[in-house]
Design a protein that fits this description.
The chain is α+β, with helices and mostly antiparallel strands. The protein has a domain of 169 residues: 3-Layer(aba) Sandwich (Aminopeptidase). Helices cover 31% and strands 27% of the residues. The chain is built from six helices and ten strands. The strands form two sheets. The protein has a seven-stranded mixed beta sheet with strand order 1-2-3-4-5-7-6, with helices on both faces. Strands 8-10-9 form a three-stranded antiparallel beta sheet. Helix 5 crosses helix 6.
């Protein structure tokens, strides 16, 4: 297979194509766009992050981020998308690694982003391939979302933090067992399919996972791994302690 090429996008035609990737991934009923072209140009002109992944000259993925200040200056990766038909080619990983190098060159100490805790594909990418930390669980983080992919659901999100170091990312191995002092929070194999077929069942699962995460974080558990069979694996880094 031809190599994936990742590069920063500065021209308006490239920016428009990236916006098209985002709108194809999160279509808005009745039309519309997640980010208007003039706003994107202003963001890119002011050194925000925008990259595209190209396969044989065609943009098949894109990622967008901006400088955040929560916890110190860092890159917050707001959107990353891969076109349908190209989602098992490690393009998402390559986009993230490009972000990592960009942040390193800018002297930024870490990268953050949110992801849906119920989407198994993303959990495995973030926790295993990239080796991120999970810092928070935010119920309904974005409020009501208008794109057809998320319509009718709650926008609960986990916050990922990816430390940028000279030694590079530290992937994890998938866990095959749970230790006696650990707990697990399972998620479905394909929540997107469940959401499309039965939104009420989707919401039941979301509320259950929300409760388990919030209860676990409240008494000092942190995410330490992921298992195909058991989902998120959590342990107390300070036994007997609680999160602030």
């Amino acid at each position: 297979m031809p190599a994936i090429q990742i590069r920063s996008l500065t021209s308006i035609p490239d920016q428009l194509e990236a916006i098209g990737v985002f709108d194809e991934t999160w279509p808005i009923a009745g039309g519309g766009t997640e980010i208007t072209p003039n706003f994107m140009q202003a963001l890119v002109h002011n050194e925000c992050y925008l990259s595209g992944a190209f396969l044989e000259g065609r943009m098949v993925g894109a990622a967008f981020g901006f400088i955040g200040m929560e916890g110190g200056f860092h890159l917050h990766s707001h959107m990353a998308a891969v076109r349908p038909g190209h989602r098992d080619l490690n393009i998402g990983t390559e986009l993230k690694l490009h972000q990592y190098q960009w942040a390193k060159e800018k002297g930024l100490p870490f990268i953050t982003w949110t992801f849906d805790p119920l989407v198994k594909r993303n959990a495995k990418l973030n926790l295993l391939k990239l080796g991120v930390e999970i810092t928070d669980y935010f119920p309904d983080f974005y409020g009501e979302m208008i794109d057809s992919h998320n319509a009718g659901d709650r926008s609960d999100r986990l916050m990922a933090r990816w430390m940028v170091t000279e030694s590079g990312p530290k992937p994890r191995e998938a866990r095959v067992r749970i230790e006696s002092d650990e707990i697990s929070i399972s998620i479905p194999k394909d929540i997107v399919e469940i959401r499309q077929e039965n939104i009420e069942r989707n919401l039941e699962i979301r509320m259950d996972v929300r409760r388990k995460f919030l209860d676990a974080f409240k008494v000092g558990f942190d995410v330490v791994g992921f298992s195909d069979n058991d989902g998120y694996i959590l342990a107390k880094s300070n036994p007997g302690g609680t999160r602030e």
